[in-house]
Amino acid sequence: MDALNRNKDDAFPRTIHERCFASKSETLLWLKPRLSKSRVLDLYFFTVQQWLRDAAGVLAAIQQKFPSQQVIIRSSSLSEDCRRNSNAGVYHSVSGVGTEQDWAVYTAVEKVIASYGNNPGDQILVQPQLTQAQMAGVVSSHAPPDGLPYYVFSYETGGGTSGVTSGSKQATTYYLYRNTAEACSKLPDLLKPIHAAVREIEALTGDTPIQLEFGCTTPEDVVIFQMRALPGVHSHTTMANRQIRMELQKNLQQALAAEGDFSGIRTLLGGMPDWNPAELLGAHPRPLAISLYRALISSSPWCKARLQLGYKDIGSQDFLHVLAGRPYVNVRTSFRSFLPAGLPQKMELQLLGAWLDRLADHPKYHDSIEFDVVPTCTDFNFLQDLQKNYGQLLRPQELALYHEKLRLLTLRMLRRPVSSDLSLQRRYWDTSHGRHPSPDSSLLQDAIQIGSLPFARIARQAFTAESMLRSAMKRGTLSRERLASFRRSTGSIGQQFLLDQNRLWKGELSEATFLDRYGHLRPNSFDICSPCYKEHCWNEPGAGNTADVDSKPFVLSSRECTDLNILIREQQFTGINAETFMVFARQAIAGREESKFLFSKFLSAILEQLAAAGAVAGLERETLSFLELKDIEPLLSRKPTKRAARLLRAKAEKNHLKFQRERQVMLPPLIRQVAEMDCFELPEFVPHFIGHTHVQADLVILKSGQAPPTPLTEKLVCIEYADPGFDWIFSRGIAGLITAYGGPNSHMAVRCAELGIPAAIGCGEALYQRISRGETLVLDCGQRNLYLAEKPKAAHPAPGAHL
């Protein structure tokens, strides 16, 4: 046993990497005498074989090493925290063991051994229990899973030491770019000693990416609990492309700059506010997808639709910025479009500044700005929420003017028939029978005029309906359960899709009819490489494929009707009563889903038209995806020469290379200043929970555009983002859904509410990354909680009496 605990290099006649990345115990022993920026606690370890041979002798040695102390009996399996395997959390450790109690130590050791397999060489590590830890967590030398050139600090404060690794505590996460001294200066002071510690250890371990678990008793006292080669990272990047970073810095400076009459008002950049491009396109979409999104949504249709509803005329402004290949919304431009027409400029500036400050101070609202930051309509709790969020921002006469302008805008939307826009879209596709009916007009222009604009108008009416329903719940007119029941009764296109899918599987609907209705849908609707339903069957029946669709009509009770009428009269919505409002809400919410569905027909038709033109030119879909719309559009009218086709292919290859280089760059979901390209906090967002159900189930990670790796029945499905093309998952009997991106009105939030499926929508990158590394998850919608369940430990024969 003594040989294993000598602090001598000759105890390990191995290469430097074998010394660095041996067992947990051996690694800590090797590190202990070499550290000056951090420290390793005293340690003692032994093998399972030694314990089985002489448990009494080992116990005596532990008590001699740590007399009358509280210790932690830690796992140190040879398959844990070594260069080839992590197996973090698989084996037991027992904390708070008093060494003066023989039986307590014996029982703890037996518990650790029982969690192993049958390797007699597995080790057990004993160390003093670290008490009064001010901070604890994990630091990685490179960002997993791709080994990007960023230090990643995830930590908790308040005394615990295992919350980050177990996933049971909310963590604070910082990213720091590795290769600039200036970036290090931007790191919070409490993380600078951790940074110094990991850099010192990197110098000892060579170029292998590493991960450390640490705790701090004081800001300067860094204790290393363990070191491992960064799990799952087989290659890494030492630095991001210099040209890409220089371009990013320039674009950030331009995007964040003040402009025109708003020189005193800052802006923010976000991937989820308003038209949430991160959810619709993904975090790092290809050039064609971005250019299609720009043409159909962000260039001008979005603000033109709002102007038609009574919001401020801001001209034809494109809200989209592309930073290192990632789509961001200019939040100032978005917020301007939510101002009602006719306000004095001074009041506009007051409101804009307050809204932007609130979002900057509360980044968790980045995907729910219409409900938590910007009043986009007059709901039934308007004045109370405005007072709560902004206090005395406006003088009484200014508040009265703002309230009246927004009230008239809201009344206009309540009175506007949703059916007029839907009828326009339906007639178009009824006439075309799924084909573009107007050879003399551009499909793209039709998509804007008949797809984007009606969809944007109906979506705004649906947001108004949702805001008013939520405020009715706040005022006590509708309960949470009754509101959920209403959502399940809307009879949306999503519910009809699941009913038709069941009819298809039962033989009551032909495949040709089903595909005629739904064949255009594709996961990742803007991606030309994603096959649509006609090309790939996402709808194969399997176990647990019965959709539970609630078709019961929703009827207000007498009390609900009376109370809702009182709220409507408070806001002076003349011509509106409880019944007509609920009809409007149902039509707007269901209409938004149908309009989105019909808009996706345009999008699919455009992609197929571009793919066909590219095929004539000898350009496959993969190549087209790395071109922009303006590059491909000329192919629609004429076949290119061989030279022109070669030039397009060369441009696609160049864009592909840039795309790969841009993947080396990481950015926060909400950008407030240029410095955040080097150092930023990844906020721990609060998910939007759907329902009240408590679910514990195994996880299935679903990659965008890929078939599920295993059956989804009774599984909690995790997916970064999803659009209508993913509705097939709701027919697979899933236990619940978790997404990284998405707000309370996002497509998946609406679907889960309609179908009564428990969900946590938009949990954010940090939480999503942490939970997606687990195996079993607890989704507690009632308590608004999401965390990893404790893993079952490995079976082992019952321990014998070794004493």
Identify the notable features of this structure and list them briefly:
6-stranded antiparallel beta sheet, disordered N terminus, 7-stranded mixed beta sheet, disordered C terminus, 803 residues, alpha+beta, single chain
Q: Determine the fraction of residues in helical runs and give it as a percent range.
A: 40-55%
Radius of gyration: 30 Å
Please state the structural category: alpha+beta
Spatial arrangement of strands, main beta sheet? 15-19-18-17-16-20-21
Give the terminus-to-terminus CA distance. Answer: 18 Å
Number of strands: 21
For the residues shown, what is the average pLDDT?
85
Overall geometry comes to globular
Q: What oligomeric arrangement do these chains adopt?
A: single chain
The fraction of residues in strands falls at: 5-15%
How many distinct helices? Answer: 29
Low-confidence stretches: 1-13, 542-547, 792-803
Main β-sheet: number of strands, strand sense, barrel status?
7 strands, mixed
Please give the structural blueprint.
Elements: H1 16-20, H2 24-31, E1 44-47, H3 48-53, H4 55-65, E2 70-76, E3 94-98, H5 102-114, E4 123-128, E5 133-140, E6 150-159, H6 163-166, E7 172-177, H7 181-185, H8 192-205, E8 210-218, E9 221-229, H9 242-256, E10 269-270, H10 277-281, H11 287-298, H12 301-309, E11 320-323, E12 326-330, H13 331-336, H14 345-361, H15 369-372, H16 382-390, H17 396-415, H18 418-432, H19 443-474, H20 480-488, H21 493-505, H22 511-518, H23 558-570, H24 578-616, H25 621-624, H26 629-632, H27 642-662, E13 670-671, E14 679-682, E15 688-690, E16 694-701, E17 716-719, E18 736-739, H28 747-755, E19 759-761, H29 764-771, E20 776-780, E21 785-788
Parallel strand pairs: 16-17, 17-18, 18-19
Antiparallel strand pairs: 1-4, 2-3, 2-4, 5-6, 5-8, 6-7, 7-14, 8-9, 10-12, 10-13, 11-12, 15-19, 16-20, 20-21
Helix pairs in contact: 12-19, 18-19, 18-24, 19-24, 20-28
